[in-house]
Design a protein that fits this description.
The chain has about 375 residues and is mainly α. About 50% of the residues lie in helices and about 0% in strands. The chain is elongated. It comes from Daubentonia madagascariensis.
């Protein structure tokens, strides 16, 4: 999956010591600060640990965020913010500015669920936390509405790709596969449209990826819709649908080349080199030839000038974000712990604020070599 889905670079963050000399005036406060420092370090280490699995990531994130909650929310569960809400500034980089291996069924389910969880996290941030920021996100930055919305939609679309691969392998009805592919193409088109007003200098590569995936799954939709039409003895319409699939597949191929030549953030994946991509080309070609043969021998139907309208709706298999909530505040946060932070002793010159000239070092992402290209097999 790493070499099929486009990814912007991992966000890097400046170190945070959680040292509040004078402010953290007692053992409970010191322990909270020490635990925050170690749990944050552990979480960041897992981002580039190839042995990390979703359970490890969730446990590390829960450990850190349960401690961080005491800096955000009041301990009495009221709507008031913690008195420590603004004691610490965090600095992050921005992701834009600054061969498909065979996978097991369990792995496919894990990918599918992880993408739905990611969509839920982005949605939760967009609806519950970003509106509370003191300074609104600048245009084109990661917390800006357009980028967050694009991430939500892309996660949904990529999760649906797993559903489509599974449906093809299980030989589900062509009508269902066509509908799922059509819905997925619409997701990618919507994500691309969301980014359309961003500066091309840093959004062009991402948009090329979204556009090529839109064309690819539109080709899938027309291909399987053509099979449905042929099964209903509408051979002329089936041929026209397959011709449209051929056209969109050719567009996707051209966009793969453009995507590879476009400069921008994130590593370049090679969708056109994957068996999953190439198999569609062969499927379109073979199905179109079959329809043309049968029309010449059996049906003798006129081929419509206009392509059939895809008004397809999948009755199941559509992806929705998994609702997300931060973990409960750590039990280490008690009124006594909070009282041990004395903000009156905070230094006047606030050294916790990042200096303008500070640069955050990029995350060194591990190189992942694709396994042997065995196609879109989910066993």
């Amino acid at each position: 999956m790493t070499h099929w889905f486009h990814r912007n670079p991992l966000k890097a963050t400046a170190p945070v010591s959680f040292n509040y000399y004078g402010v953290a005036s007692g053992p409970p406060a010191s322990k909270i600060c020490n635990d925050l420092r170690s749990s944050r370090t552990r979480l960041l280490e897992l981002f580039t640990d190839l042995s990390c699995n979703p359970e490890m990531m969730k446990n590390a994130a829960d450990s850190y965020f349960s401690l961080l909650q005491g800096f955000i929310n009041s301990l009495d569960e009221s709507t008031q913010e913690s008195k420590l809400r603004y004691i610490q500034n965090f600095k992050w980089t921005d992701t834009l500015q600054g061969q498909v291996p065979s996978i097991t069924e369990d792995e496919a389910k894990e990918v599918h669920r992880s993408l739905k969880i990611a969509a839920g996290i982005f949605k939760h941030l967009k609806e519950s936390h970003i509106p509370k920021l003191i300074t609104p996100a600048e245009k084109g930055r990661d917390l800006e509405a357009r980028l967050i919305e694009a991430y939500i939609i892309q996660c949904q679309a990529e999760a649906q790709e797993v559903t489509i691969a599974r449906a093809i392998e299980l030989k589900h009805a062509p009508g269902l596969i066509a509908a799922l592919a059509y819905e997925t193409a619409n997701f990618y088109q919507k994500a691309d449209h969301t980014l359309s007003s961003l500066e091309p200098a840093y959004s062009a590569k991402w948009r090329k990826y979204l556009h090529l995936k839109m064309c690819f799954y539109t080709a899938y939709a027309y291909c399987y819709h053509g099979q449905t039409l042929l099964a209903s003895d509408k051979c002329g319409e089936a041929i026209r649908s397959l011709q449209e699939a051929e056209k969109f597949y050719a567009k996707a191929e051209a966009l793969c080349k453009e995507y590879g030549e476009t400069k921008g953030p994130g590593p370049t994946v090679k969708p056109s080199g994957h068996l999953f991509f190439r198999k569609l080309g062969n499927l379109v070609k073979n199905t179109l030839e079959k329809c043309q043969r049968e029309n010449g021998f059996i049906y003798f139907q006129k081929i419509p000038m206009e392509a059939p309208q895809l008004e397809l709706k999948a009755n199941y298999g559509l992806v929705e974000p998994v609702p997300f909530e931060f973990p409960p505040t750590s039990a280490h946060w008690t009124p006594e712990t909070l009282a041990a932070f004395d903000l009156t002793k905070r230094p006047k010159d606030d050294s916790t604020k990042p200096k303008p000239e500070e640069e955050v070092k990029p995350v060194k992402e591990p190189g992942i070599k694709p396994q042997k290209d065995t196609g879109c097999s989910i066993s």
